[in-house]
Amino acid sequence: LFFSFSTFGANPSIVKRLFNTQLLTTSMCRECDTVEKRQSSSLLWSLTYPRPRLDDSKKAAQPKQRSFSQLLAGSLLREQQIQAWCEKCKKFQPQKQHRSIQKMPDVLSINCQAESEADLNFWHKQQEYCQVVKPSTDGQKPESSWQPWVPFSLCVRETSSNVEISDAEETDGPASARGVTYYDLVASVAHVNDRKTQGSIAVHVRVAPNYHLKKEGVRHTQWYLFNDFAINPVDKELAVDFSPEWKIPCVLVYARRDLDTSYDLSVHQRLDPAVLLPTVSRHNPHLVLNNMRALRPGELPRKGDFVGLDAEFVTINQEETELASDGTKTTVKPSNFSLARLTAVRGAGQFEGVPFIDDYIATSEQVVDYLTKFSGIKPGDLDANISSKHLITLKQAYRKLRFLIDRGVHFVGHGLKKDFRVINILVPREQIVDTVELFHLPNQRYISLRFLAWFFLRLRIQAVTHDSTEDARTALSLYRRYQQLEARKELQEAIKHLYDAGRTNNWQVPPA
User: Fold this and answer.
1) Dihedral of CA 53/55/59/61: which sign?
2) Nearest in space to 73 (alpha carbons), one of 7, 147, 173, 151
3) What distance, in Å, lies between the first and last C-alpha atoms of the chain?
4) 450: part of which helix (H) or strand (E)?
5) What would the pLDDT profile of 472-512 be if each residue is shown by its tens digit?
6) Confidence band (pLDDT; 50, 70, 90) for 447?
């Protein structure tokens, strides 16, 4: 009896703790009956489909009806005949091999692996079997209903030698009982075919029940569709509705029903306040910035403090397009925006309006357009070899923003919601004060920062190009003006005069 052990070590990562399945593979030589057992681990389960049977005419017969849990169990616990080295026979011999599960994972990640026409046909037929047709009554048209083949829940029962897997209902049993564990579907990934492009990945995700308490008008039950930048609430049935002709299943993710009670899900502040303290420029450690005053240890923003913020971007990577025979142009790969400058100014105190962050973000990627007219960024500003600016890495910029967000700071700026989306960082809605929304009438155009500054503050900004320090400071002043108008109950009247002035001047700041 031979053993070979393979483990992840004494301190596995959180990924291995969540996804790791402990397996025992047993192989028996068909010649000498020597048994070898080997322990191993797997982070992913891959589905294995039955080989198509041939009918009397030597054509592939349609696959038989089979539950999803039967396919899943057969894929992981299957027995197979292999050729392997036998230590006793000292040569390769036919062996019988089977696997058993020693420990189930907390999160079950399933690779659907539907790669061939036969695999896709298997999915198609199983979903067809789930169509239920009710007989017609009184001459009415027969009614059909559909039950999803992929279950929303799985039940795993431990036996003396292995586990048994079966489909379950979301309402079945407690979260876990002795020898029984329930898993609920939390995500599904599909590839959506598109003749004009290479297709796209669509992800269905189940969110926590209390998330919907924050979403007004959402009547769906916890499921969201992520399709590129589009995020929409959907019916849960769409998460398991696959059409192999255009929506191919890729990955299914199930989580233990009692997962939340097994881990500490509280968010801890891990960033050191030192991320906001003076930093050395990447390329010029002796660079002196005269236009900003870095925070001192006693000046760190507190929860509820206001900070003026502005971000500037450049375009990276050339857009790739295809021209069809009918003359239509399709974007295959769009160009992307990259954060180029980040400025934050104090919102109160002796140094109100003075920047404590004014960083340029170094990039090694090709800049297609510096957007100088709108960003103020010029060629060479982001190049660590020749730039005269205070350069930091994108990671450092993210860490500064993340620290401010976690501190509960309120950000004041113009177009901040769009900026945060491009930066790809989540900021709670209550921490964003966007001046583009403050001075806006429903169903009317949004107004530029330059025009707002002229009308409310009698300031002429962005005369030649944009400057993020000026923009952040102006947005902060506009918010103070907004508070004054609202306190005097003059806000709505002021906004009406604003739109009248905009129409009169064609939304352009009149010459001095």
Assistant:
1) negative
2) 151
3) 94
4) helix 449-452
5) 999 999 999 999 999 999 999 999 999 999 999 999 989 87
6) very high
The label of the residue with tokens 């050191």 reads: 272
Helix 491-504 and helix 468-487, axial crossing angle in degrees, nearest 10: 130
The DSSP string of 159-203 is -SSSEEEEEE-TTSS-SEETTEEEEEEEEEEEEEP-SSSS-EEEE
Tokens of 33: 């009956």
φ, ψ for residue 431 (rounded to 5)?
-100, 5
Residue 215 has pLDDT above 70, yes or no: no
Question: How many other CB atoms sit within 10 Å of the CB of residue 411?
Answer: 24
Q: What's the maximum distance between 2 C-alpha atoms anywhere in the chain?
A: 99
Kindly provide the residue ranges of all beta strands, DSSP E only, lying in 216-261, ordered along the sequence: 223-227, 230-233, 247-256
Match 């357009």 to its residue by tokens: 369
DSSP state of 457: I
Give the contacts of 200 (CB within 8 A, at least 6 positions apart). Answer: 191, 192, 194, 227, 228
Q: What is the pTM of this model?
A: 0.61
Q: Give me the DSSP letters along 64-117.
A: PP--HHHHHHHHHS-EEEEEEEETTTTEEEEEEEEEEEEE--SEEEEE----SH
Tokens 């067809």 belong to 128
Inter-residue contact 83 to 94 (CB < 8 Å): yes
The answer to whether 416 touches 380, Cβ cutoff 8 Å, is no
Contact 476, 306 (CB under 8 A): yes
CA distance 445 to 101: 61
Which residues, in sequence order, are CB contacts of 133 under 8 Å at separation 6+? 142, 143, 144
CA distance 103 to 121: 33
- Amino acid at position 40, single letter: S
CA 404 to chain centre: 21
Of 411, 495, 414, nearest in space to 461 by CA? 414
Residue 77: HSE in the Cβ half-sphere, 13 Å Cα cutoff: 15
How many Cβ atoms from other residues are within 10 Å of residue 247's Cβ? 16
CA-nearest of 339, 331, 287 to 313 is 339
Query: Distance between alpha carbon 219 and the CA centroid of its chain, in Å?
Result: 22
DSSP 139: T
309 closest CA partner among 195, 435, 430: 435
pLDDT in tens, 362-377: 988 888 888 888 888 9
At residue 461, the 3 state secondary structure works out as coil
Q: How does strand 91-103 pair with strand 79-86?
A: antiparallel
Contacts of 308 (CB under 8 A, 6+ apart): 344, 345, 346, 347, 353, 412, 413, 472, 473, 475, 476
Question: What are the angstrom distances between the C-alpha of 319 and each of 227, 269, 330, 370?
Answer: 20, 39, 11, 15
Report the Cα 298 to chain-centroid distance in Å: 36
Question: What token pair was written down for 451?
Answer: 């025009």
Query: Is the model more confident about 416 or about 139?
Result: 416
- In degrees and rounded to multiples of 5, residue 196 shows phi and psi of -80, -25
Q: Provide the residue type at 49 as one letter.
A: Y
Mean pLDDT of 338-345: 94
